Amino acid sequence: MEQAMRTILVANPKGGCGKTTLATNLAAYLAGQNQRVVMWDLDRQKSSLDWLALRPSELPTITSLDADRNEIHPDIPENNDWLVLDSPAGMHGKNLAHALKLAHKVMVPVQPSVFDMAATRDFLDQLMEEKSVRKHKAFIGIIGMRVDPRTRAAATLEQFLQQYDLPVLTYLRDTMVYVNAAFNGKSIFDLPPYQTERDISQWQPIIEWVNS
């Protein structure tokens, strides 16, 4: 029996926290595992779709879904394994509730700054009130973005997140590897291993959590 499509929502109301970096690299990883992946970019800027337009044709295919974010039942191509949702900054209310209904898992990228943590606090409080989260239908994982786990900033972030009893899956370092890859429609999973060994090891907890 064929497995139903699983949906990963990447969300945080703060702009510039790394949502698109997470979404595009996750989609590319899954596509590289011979999974059929659809990417739905809910942001008006459509950064994920711009990245897809740059993607070389010889790399594993990711299908784009260019649907309006207010569409309740977009025409998602059939027979896919994964839907990756890249959400816009400031998503809340009905739009957030609808995205959560679709999601099997929610990835929340957070940078260890005062502004990011303040925005994320409000967002996590909101998330915890959502029915699908309260019923454990959507599982949440936090990813520390652009942070060295050995720093005081990482310790502060971890301390901040302890109040929510949510897993901090991993910390992704601040590196130009992601930026340079994205310029060419690539992910760290599309680059030679010698360039990305450290970054791919940081992704292992995300991969295990997504597949669990």
From TrEMBL:
Domain of life: Bacteria
InterPro entries reported for this sequence: CobQ/CobB/MinD/ParA_Nub-bd_dom (IPR002586), DNA_Partitioning_ATPase (IPR050678), P-loop_NTPase (IPR027417)
Short name of one Pfam family: CbiA
CDD domains (UniProt xref): ParAB_family
Residue span, CobQ/CobB/MinD/ParA nucleotide binding domain: 8-185
Signal peptide start-end: none
Record's protein name: Cobyrinic acid a,c-diamide synthase
